[in-house]
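thoughts on my protein:
***
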Amino acid sequence: MAVKHASEIIVLSKGVQEYFWKTYKRKTVFIPNGVSRPQIREAKEITEKFGLKKDDYILFLGRIVPEKGLRYLIEAYKGLNTDKKLVIAGGSSDTDAFTVELKKMAGENVIFTGFVAGRLREELYSNAYVYVLPSDLEGMPLSLLEAMSYGNCCLTSDIEECAEVVEDKAVVFQKGDVGDLREKLQELCDDENLVVRYKSEAADFICTKYSWDEVSRKTIKLYRRAKNREFRNVSKRTLPREDKV
């Protein structure tokens, strides 16, 4: 329906744009999500509720669904030599069965917070040592943008939708490879200076690259273009034609 009837189609990643062209020969407009620089929060609620302190945990924050690669993350974490906790924050999408499965896999020091919002969510982003997004599949990972906007050192799978977001300002591992994920996590746990370097670059990079001002400007321009084209088409259909002599 979108391909046949939409005046314009906005896609959030170059990969999806390529899919529309290869599959349907339909041109689309790439306009990604935007992100704003947030307020950094001290660890208060997360300490009271979960015993978490600044830089003492590895964070995943997102929907608890299989395509996010959480099985890989838990398996990788179980083989780490670290005293940092693993925090899995977010709610299940359709069913709790997958969350139950993950909790059975998880060992000590793995904390499931459930759905988080407001100050609790802000504190989790603000105080993480490393943010991990091990996804097999993404459209446009808004959680990755958010994590970097908080100045986090990020570790993500090398799928195109994530790699094109972070460029060289985060660490990537081979999708689905538990050993590679564990190796990269261990390196970050062992090298605090490396983590600090990635943290120092993340927020400025992501807030400039995915500025809401620029996203809004491109979106408004596209809507105006579609509206003007539709107006011209309606005018052609409704204006009277001169009789041929």
Notes: The first helix runs from residue 2 to 5. The chain has a mean pLDDT of 92. The longest strand covers residues 57-61. The CA atoms of residues 12 and 32 lie 4 Å apart.
